[in-house]
Specification:
Elements: E1 6-12, H1 16-27, E2 35-40, H2 47-52, E3 59-62, H3 68-77, E4 83-86, E5 92-93, H4 97-107, E6 113-121, E7 127-130, H5 138-143, E8 152-155, H6 156-162, H7 173-183, E9 188-199, H8 210-225, H9 230-244, H10 254-270, H11 275-287
Parallel strand pairs: 1-2, 1-4, 2-3, 6-9
Antiparallel strand pairs: 4-8, 5-9, 6-7, 6-8
């Protein structure tokens, strides 16, 4: 049986302090015939100098793009490997990750996407917490993103069949991609092995704009399925109350504020108040079920 080839794609922009660690984690995988391309969005920090220092061990392009999904799409278009490994410029692979993933693909030709466990790491690569990955289930994926992007790998044929990343989603580009593939019938396989470290720190794109992220999640889910699951409405409500309404978790106004924001979110995205939303918000008000930190994704 012919060995599958891997194309690794790293989108990058002003991540010079991390990108060397990202690159090293890819090049140290020991996979034969690895294609590696870094698509840099015209960084103004030390990124390009770091890229040049690797010589012909990788290919790169540094130019303005339309954001992260555009960079990933360009990288996929510039490579030919059958298995696509997408790793952002501040994340890392665990030793042996690519080989473990290749074995799953080679032994299961029907599988389109392989994903595994991952952990959040800080700026010094120290462990923060495990990412809550789970065996695949589309209904669970609608409720929670159970796939950690750097720990996910897919066959090029899914891009040919379902399309590349959608440029309209700048925060939820990976989540929308997994949902689109799953909705279309792609076969997912969970590998219970730690494959990647996803860096988490205040300057990451998603952690610094929680309300915007949750708004885009709801927009994306409405676009994809015609309805936003209640859990995501509640998550948005929590972010709205904390960040825009600035009601503290311990305030006596916090629970009624989240309940009100949840009702508004349900009307705004789903155009109705479902019986489940009415029951849940009523229980918060009558039984005080909201606790500090609950409900947020």
């Amino acid at each position: 049986m012919a060995r599958l080839t891997v194309a690794a794609v790293t989108p990058s922009y002003n991540q010079g302090r991390f990108i060397g660690r990202t690159i090293d984690s890819v090049l140290s995988q020991g996979v034969a015939d690895l294609e590696y391309v870094v698509m840099d969005g015209g960084s103004t920090d030390e990124t390009v100098a770091v890229l040049k220092s690797y010589g012909d061990r990788l290919r790169y392009r540094s130019e303005r793009d339309k954001g992260q999904p555009d960079a990933v799409n360009k990288g996929m278009a510039e490579t030919t490997g059958e298995i696509i490994a997408w790793l952002n410029s501040d994340d890392v692979y665990m030793p042996g990750a690519l080989q473990a993933v290749l074995e799953v693909f080679e032994n299961n030709p029907e599988v389109d996407v392989v994903y595994g466990d991952a952990e959040h790491i800080d700026v010094d690569d120290a462990f923060i917490e495990d990412y809550p990955a789970e065996p695949f289930d589309l209904e669970r994926l609608k409720e929670r993103c159970i796939i950690c992007q750097p720990a996910a790998f897919f066959r090029r044929r899914v891009v040919e069949r379902f399309g590349a990343l959608d440029l309209r989603w700048q925060y939820t580009l990976d989540y929308e991609f997994w949902l689109r593939l799953a909705k279309g019938g792609a076969v997912f396989r969970y590998l219970p092995r730690k494959l990647a470290g996803s860096r988490f720190y205040p300057q990451t794109k998603t952690s610094g704009a929680r309300l915007t992220v949750h708004g885009e999640i709801n927009d994306m889910l409405l676009h994809t399925f015609g309805r936003v699951p209640d859990r995501w409405l509640y998550n948005y409500a929590h972010a709205l109350v904390r960040e825009k309404w600035q009601v503290a978790d311990g305030s006596p106004l916090f629970t009624p504020a989240v309940a009100l924001a949840s009702l508004q979110a349900s009307l705004g995205w789903n155009r109705r108040l479902s019986p489940a939303v009415l029951r849940t918000t009523a229980s918060w008000l009558t039984r005080g079920l909201i606790r500090p930190g609950s409900g947020a994704a």
